[in-house]
């Protein structure tokens, strides 16, 4: 089963698989997502702001909590790390810099 995640302001719509995080789904679908660590949960560059559908997001785990706190953001379920975020329904997030990877 897939779940739709809309990414603002780019207008990208991603179909995220069950048990797949948002970052991995974007890569699978050919999108470049800002990161330094490549999805390991340590750089915090991939963070998103959840605009709609927070109730469809996975709980914040310990590594993600540590990252959000390091960003000096509240751990309220609205700031999330894309490499840790799994969804179970439609979600809208804001993340600048998400774009289609250039084919070489």
Automatic annotation (TrEMBL):
Stored InterPro entries: 2Fe-2S_ferredoxin-like_sf, 2Fe-2S_ferredoxin-type, Beta-grasp_dom_sf
> What's a Gene Ontology MF term here?
iron-sulfur cluster binding
Which Pfam families does the record associate with it? Fer2
Q: Where is the 2Fe-2S ferredoxin-type domain?
A: 3-104
Q: Please report the name of this protein according to its UniProt entry.
A: Ferredoxin
- Organism from which the protein derives: Streptomyces griseoruber
Taxonomic lineage is: Bacteria, Bacillati, Actinomycetota, Actinomycetes, Kitasatosporales
């Amino acid at each position: 089963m897939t779940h739709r995640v809309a990414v603002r302001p780019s207008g990208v719509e991603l179909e995220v698989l069950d048990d797949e995080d948002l970052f991995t789904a974007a890569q699978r679908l050919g999108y470049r997502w800002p990161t330094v660590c490549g999805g390991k949960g340590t750089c915090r560059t991939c963070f998103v702001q959840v605009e709609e559908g927070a109730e469809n997001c996975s709980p914040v785990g310990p590594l993600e909590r540590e990252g959000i706190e390091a960003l000096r953001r509240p751990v309220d379920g609205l700031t999330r790390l894309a490499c840790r975020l799994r969804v179970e329904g439609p979600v809208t997030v804001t993340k600048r810099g998400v774009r289609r990877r250039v084919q070489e």
